[in-house]
Amino acid sequence: METLAALGRTRLVPVVVLDDARDAAPLAGALVAGGLPVAEVTFRTPAAADAIKAMADRGDILLGAGTVLTPAQVDEAVAAGASYVVSPGLSRAVVERCRERGVLALPGAVTATEIQAALELGLDTVKFFPAGTSGGAPAMAALAGPFGGVRFIPTGGIGPANLHEYLAIDAVVAVGGSWMVPRERIRAGDFETVRRLTAEAVALLRPSAPPSREPSQ
After folding, report:
1. Are 90 and 117 in contact (CB under 8 A)?
2. Residue among 2, 40, 114, 214 flagged as catalytic
3. pLDDT tens per residue, range 61-72
4. What pLDDT is stored for residue 176 in this prediction?
5. Average pLDDT over residues 43-47
6. Is 214 an active-site residue?
7. Closest among 137, 109, 134 to 123, alpha carbons compared
8. So what's the pLDDT on residue 210?
9. How much is the average pLDDT of 200-211?
10. Which domain CATH number covers 118?
């Protein structure tokens, strides 16, 4: 699927929480200017659908909806312009609605049982979440062994200090993180800081870039 290929090209997906949809367009501008034209906008606030629409209207950023728990939220996300849907766990109803709507479903799965359940639903890519508290990169790498055809997008507890631990695993398509889109900076309208943090994050993706020791978020 083209959406998954696009995520694989970016290698890093900003996970965004927006409290005000008016911040969506300038945030998208900061991400694009920083070299990362992709975002997962979480359905943790009432502004999510309007924020996705405002960002999608720009036409220059790949958008996903995160923290999607119900088929109704899938419908909202797709109507707003989301190309993929991310869930914290595995819901048959959500996955099936995504299939009906023609969008990529990325459910959360961190155990062998959950991964097998995803395979039974016809999926081959899952969100390894919450990565940091579920054994991190070593646990994910161990699961990649018996599930050779499964690919992962680890998210949760990942930052500059451990980003490369995940990216070094062949089964990883991309990594989700929030350190380049701090909620308090977005609330303050400080999109220049977001642009700078995004550019620094993109620089970390270069093979020669040494990992920072900043704490993960």
Report:
1. yes
2. 40
3. 999 999 999 999
4. 98
5. 98
6. no
7. 109
8. 47
9. 78
10. 3.20.20.70
127 has catalytic annotation: yes
- Cα of first residue to Cα of last residue in the chain, in angstroms, is 30
Considering the domain boundaries, does residue 213 fall inside one? no
The answer to whether 72 and 91 are in contact (CB under 8 A) is no
Domain holding 127, by residue range, is 2-204
Q: What is d(CA 2, CA 113) in angstroms, rounded to the nearest whole number?
A: 28
Sign of CA dihedral 109, 89, 6, 3: positive
Residue 211 lies in a domain: no
Q: Answer whether residue 98 shows pLDDT above 90.
A: yes
Catalytic residue among 53, 76, 127, 165: 127
Kindly state whether residue 216 falls inside one of the protein's structural domains: no
CB-based contact 181:126 (threshold 8 Å): no
* Half-sphere exposure at residue 107, Cβ-oriented, CA atoms within 13 angstroms: 28
Asked if 98 and 74 count as a contact pair (C-beta separation under 8 A), the reply is yes
pLDDT tens-digit readout, 154-174? 999 999 999 999 999 999 999
Residue 85 to residue 41: CA distance in whole angstroms? 10
CA distance 87 to 78: 14
Asked if residue 216 has pLDDT above 90, the reply is no
Indicate whether 212 belongs to any domain: no
Does pLDDT of 60 surpass 80?
yes
Total domains, the chain = 1
CB-based contacts of 29: which residues, under 8 Å, 6+ apart? 58, 191
